[in-house]
Amino acid sequence: MFRRDKGLLNWSTVRVVFSEKPFSLQPVNMMRMFSRRHTFIFKLAILVGSIFLVLCLVMLYDVGGRTSPEPWLQELSEKHSQLMGVVRGAASNMGFQIGAPLPPPSKPGTNPTSHRCPPGLYGRGDLKPHLERPPQDPLGPGAYGRPFVSGEMSPAEIKEKQDGLTKNIFNQFASDRISLHRSLGNDTRHPDCVGQQFRRCPPLPTTTVIIVFHNEAWSTLLRTVYSILHTAPAFLLTEVLLVDDASTDDHLKSRLDEYVLQLGIVRVLRQSERKGLITARLLGAQAARGETLTFLDAHCECFDGWLEPLLARIVEEPTAVVSPEIVVIDQNSLKFVKPIESAQNRGNFDWNLNFGWEQIPDEYQKQRKNQTYPIRTPTFAGGLFSISRAYFDHIGSYDDKMEIWGGENVEMSFRVWQCGGQLEIIPCSVVGHIFRTKSPHTFPNGKSVIIRNQVRLAEVWMDDYKQLFYRRNTKAAIIAKEKTYGDISERLKLKEKLGCKNFTWYLHNVYPEAYVPDLTSVKFGALENIGSKTCLDVGEKNTGGKPVTMYMCHKSGGNQFFEYTSHQELQHNINKPLCLHATPGALLVTIELCSRKGPGSGVAPEQVWHFTRASLLKNLSTDKCLTMDGAKVVLSGCDSANQNQQWIFS
Ligand SMILES: [Mn+2]
User: Fold this and answer.
1) CA of 292 to the centre of ligand 1 (A)
2) Is domain 523-649 given the CATH code 2.80.10.50 in the classification?
3) Cα(381) to centroid(ligand 1), Å
4) pTM of the model as a whole
5) Tell me: domain 184-434, CATH 3.90.550.10, correct?
6) Each residue's pLDDT tens digit, 490-500
7) Which DSSP helix (H) or strand (E) runs through 430?
């Protein structure tokens, strides 16, 4: 496995070389020619020479240790030891063999490989969970992750189901009827994952699971807790912290406190004021006693073997921030969509700074030798992940001046990568999550909180590329211009202190496949029709192939953002280049993927729009002009007196 494998290999190589004593065996015949005295002098010379060499190496090692910029990372001492092994291995190959192998130089307690853990692999018995799952009723509602099926419902039940849906935006009625201890059935992960075993040395670190909740349904919250207790190896689970972000529901007050008391390792922490996810997580992190932190959402179910691969990766690479493969628990049926061999995704972002998923590029997939290998991901969803507690503090935890929720995952993504860490998805670790179509909660100050958070992250981490965001999000541009995003000096200091790289580096090295729009285009904004005072709009979820429409100008960019390029295209380019497209003979104007693919490639005439002096947009392929027709956008014969054909960027 990854780096650790190499390390162990080095150690065994070193040991073999030491035990063979190559130098003392070969010159046997020569030695007989010397008298005892000569032999003594010869040995003395070797001894003195060897001591000198060892001293040199130890000094080199010490200097290396001192220049290490990360004294917090004691785990890294293991890597230094490995390096030392390589150096000594090289030395013995050169013939400078000394009598007996030296133990690796180490400060007390810094080298977990030396004495504290036994060799070999953890066995099944070692990985026993905190609580055994009680016997399952195979015919019970939703058993083994199957969907909940309701029979005939009484009027009271119909009302209960509706109320639950309204309150949670998932089917609480179903959740309340599914066992809190439901098993997810047989292990359907890739065979590489099912067969994966973990070394005892260095030991897997302990973890504190932190779950933030706000008015969560009892059954989803407790099923999350039980699914941890039934799956996480007991010796790795220090505690489960439930952090209440000022819930108002009665069942989450003393009833919850009393209930979790019997579970032993579950504690409830309370945030008395609604401050949101970020401060609640920080509260949990401060109270945590585990060596790593594992953040989960309050409506999850953990699949067998989900925790060990996350922690094993952190042992191997202490700067890795690792997410499980997140699978869907259906919001209506509570069906747990079990892991199967399928195309794996990674996280990305668009220039509105929204998080999204995309398929892993093929060439990158090929580099992964088997399914246990981590997937590097440019961004992460941020709800479910594990991180070394020391590294969480070192890398600047969260921006505590961000409010409530939103943008913190993209902020952490940029920060971790730019400041020397890595974000990964560990496919062998599988956790289900109830994805909802919208949030059931109200936000103090509404959506502008999220935009403010995004402006903070753009200002700190994106250098000039932040302009691409501001052009596409007018509200963000206003917050940035008026500087109402709050004080970011602490975050800039952190960036300086950690010696973080810039956003260009991130784009080139972490996400070279990213689509980066033109920063130099002159005309951009909303395309307003003079006749109707409405704006050209791509409509909801138009990722190409659908007609554009006319809509009230909302002055916030997004679906109304267009850019007029030097190639005379009208681009809508928030996560990929889409172009306003006229198909000869077709009634409606659509957006399609831009035909121009970079330098040297031409523009299809369907996508060339000549902006005339009379503010008409004349299409090259049809020789007709863009025309507003109520809510529709059509092409018709050009007439500079027709206001429905006149457009301005506003
Ligand atoms: Mn959630």
Assistant:
1) 21
2) yes
3) 10
4) 0.79
5) yes
6) 999 999 999 99
7) strand 422-434
